[in-house]
Amino acid sequence: MQSVLLAPPKPMLTLTIDGESVRVPEGFTILQALRKKGIETPTLCYLENLTPVNVCRVCVVEVVGSRVLVPSCSRKVEEGMVVLTNSERVQHSRKLVLELLASSVDMALVNEDTKRWMQEYGAEPEKFGEASAPSQEGERDARHSGHHHAPHSTTAETVAQPVKVDNDLYIRDYSKCILCYKCVEACGADAQNTFAIAVAGRGFDARISTEFAIPLTDSACVYCGNCIGVCPTNALMFKSEYDMRQAETWDETKQTVTETICPYCGVGCNLELHIQDNRIVKATSPLDRDITQGHLCIKGRFGWEFINNR
Amino acid sequence: MDLHFTSATATDEERSAIDATLDGEAGALQPPTTSERFRKRHLLLPVLHAVQSRVGWISPGAINYMGERLTVPPAEAYGVATFYALFSTEPQPPTVLHVCDDIACQTRGADALCKHLEAEFGKEGVSCANGAITWKRSPCLGLCEKAPAVLFQTSGEECQDYTLAPVNAEQLSSALRGKPSKEFRPIHGLPPQTVTPAMPLLKRVGSVDPLSYEAYCANGGYSALRRALEIGAVEVIRELSSARLMGRGGAAFPTGVKWKAVSEAPAKPHYVVCNADESEPGTFKDRVIMEQDPFALIEALTIAGYACGAEQGVIYIRGEYPEATSHLQNAILQARSAGLLGNNILESGLTFDIEVRRGAGAYICGEETALLNSLEGKRGEPRNKPPFPVHFGLFGKPTAINNVETLVNVLPILLEGGSQYAEIGSGNSTGTRLFCLSGNVERPGVYEIPYGATLRSLLELAGGVAGGRNLQAILLGGAAGVFVRPDELDIPLTLEGARAANATLGSGVVMVFDDTVDMRRILTRIAGFFRDESCGQCVPCRVGTVRQEEALYRLMEAKGEPQKELALLAELEQVMKDASICGLGHTASSAISSAIHRLGVFQGVKE
């Protein structure tokens, strides 16, 4: 039998969501309250195992009395709060956030939920006009803060740029980066404490980068792959998956997922092995398990290549 | 903490610049933590400044060495260095000439200046004078009353940045030919307005030596601090409340409420911070106060420390204000040696000291929570609020942040008494207010007028439109403010009056445009400004400011359908206003929208 330490019960707060009264424990965020109520709320930069950074702004809701919309992922519930999730302002902001992202970032490989939200909110990213030409290798990495020197463009600037392939384990395709900060958090104090990457630059030129954009092989990266695990757009991808996609052999309909325990050490991390054509094509870890909370180390993440060497 | 560094090593020069900053005189600021990871991180910006000004750029070796000494991962230090426009992470010539091409300077020949430089020395960013110097366009340098303005950012041992304004093409040419000279340094003259001793804020400006503690004391200096110590902290806050002092930085929050919250906050220590990161285009009032009456700010911040129960105060000043910085530093040294900073101030038992921290070219750091992050050695990204700084401020502790003008108002309030002070003006607009007149106005400069005068009377006080030309528009409140028309000059200059006219006083900007100005060019410059200065954290502002600029260029070049572009601008305005994290995004389309709807800038779409 498992023994469980009981914390003193938290006081309950009452709030109104879309006209209905809801009771939640003190300390709940609005998003937690919405989920408890079964109201689906789009999120991009939010993940259960990371500190909310509330930067994508797609989860905003209207709180009566607040001049501006509030991010539900990080705003704590207060007694008597009146929340609207479906007002015109909320609809507009969510739609525009999705449009602004899709007009500047390659969203082709986002998850099914995000694709569905794009449809539900009626996002039309093409309304911002024809896309500008992609930037050359290293160009965005070298942009200075301050006065931008781009020719005053009448086309829609994007973050399109060549893929960074500098090691055998994973690639970084920053054309697909929505700057959700999740990889930085996972590399940093929220999981790995390696701090190999950070946000550099400013404004539209802000980017995820190692110091001086050096290759990962020269950086502090320990190849735990936890950044890949949290990336919502597949900007960070197993090299194995990337190569198969390039060769057009990647086929998720032919894949199965086997959950197992990592064989390497005594911790016993949960592993999900993704198998295609009887080969392991990538490894992930479920978010909702106490041991890993979705995070792994280099061995669990990448140390299965030998199995394929038959 | 186990940090990983590349093999790049710092040069002796870089090391000595970093060591001198860290081992030299310890600053007043002490974070309340023993954690190795956070204890010294707040020194990252001072160290980056030290390297930038000694060797002219931040090299990989320098990043590694500062990372080792401060326990900051190199990727994070690089992320911070690349956030600020005045730091370069690539080699560049030792002197960088920043030429302001922002809206106030545009009305006074900045474009011609840039064209001259381009013709004679090549495109911006290219090195000239045998690699000794390069020039760059810059956002507003806060020297608008002396436009056009430039900033010389220098590097080397014993270098000193300096500004020149007004400046002409010949002066710049000779400077770029390798004879940078300080001989055109601005002489700090009298303000254009006739200053009288009855003016609470400007009374010493132009007549009392800003470098002399004795002169300050002989002209009423430090009597407000004595009064504060006499009546006690609680009474000081009560005086502020009865004066109904509202913040002068743009948000107009009641100062008494802020100080009361900090003074009563149970968490310790408390901090007081002066926001001197005056970067709103068209704003220069705080610079004038700091350059010409720096002791007033030191005294006022000391009173703030006393009232809020803080022993440490910081002045965060924008990096483009070298003269104001040196005047403040001089004032702090003199106040310290006179026993007015440090332990047991005026035998009262009060302990308080002040450190000046320089920004490095980032408008967003004027947003109070971005400023706090910058002070902590992080990227200047605003925090989500709540929690507010009064509860969770610098190093997570209760912090009172006030603008320079707000703070110096504390002196007359204590000397006259709060209710006497509130006799001037009406409603929540009490006391006098500093306005920054610039653009096509006859006598540009800082004006101090009682709350309640009309925009027309202020314009008349400044001699009207320069050269007697016709008025086209006035930008009220700054780039984050709104344009008003010539028929709206009867707007009373009060918080309430501006609000009733769907305008804002913002940071006190009154920028005048005559009928020769192409307002579309002014709008694209404003749009470019917000795009450049967005921190990049939240999607509405990061991408919205780019899309806004693009739509304006399409409108200007008559590409596409104007009605469609105008509708797009309205949609962008709504999402930036509603869903951005901070005030930058909330107001990034305010001026542009007002130009379209109030002035009818794009083909008769006036409402």
- Largest beta sheet of chain A, briefly? 5 strands, mixed
Mean pLDDT of chain A: 94
Computed over alpha carbons, the radius of gyration of chain A is 21 Å
Number of domains of chain B: 5
Distance between the termini of chain A: 43 Å
According to CATH, the homologous superfamily of the largest domain in chain B is: NADH-ubiquinone oxidoreductase 51kDa subunit
Strand order of the largest sheet of chain A: 2-1-5-3-4
β-strand number of chain B = 17
Instruction: State the separation between the terminal residues of chain B, measured CA to CA.
Output: 61 Å
Number of helices of chain A: 8
Strand content of chain A: 15-25%
Q: What attributes characterize this protein structure?
A:
heterodimer, A: 310 residues, alpha+beta, Ubiquitin-like (UB roll), Alpha-Beta Plaits, 2 domains, 5-stranded mixed beta sheet, 3-stranded antiparallel beta sheet, 8 helices, 12 strands, B: 607 residues, alpha/beta, Arc Repressor Mutant, subunit A, Glutaredoxin, Rossmann fold, 5 domains, 25 helices, 41% helix, globular
Structure description:
The complex is a heterodimer of chains A (310) and B (607). Chain A is of the alpha+beta class and 310 residues long. Chain A is built from eight helices and twelve strands. In chain A, the strands form four sheets. A five-stranded mixed beta sheet of chain A has the order 2-1-5-3-4, with helices on both faces. The mean pLDDT of chain A is 94. Chain B is α/β, with parallel strands linked by helices. In chain B, 41% of the residues lie in helices and 14% in strands. Chain B is built from 25 helices and 17 strands. The longest helix of chain B is centred in the last third of the chain and has 18 residues, at 539-556. Classes of the chains: A alpha+beta (310), B alpha/beta (607). At the A-B interface, helix 2 and strand 7 of A face helix 5, strand 3, helix 21, helix 22 and helix 23 of B.
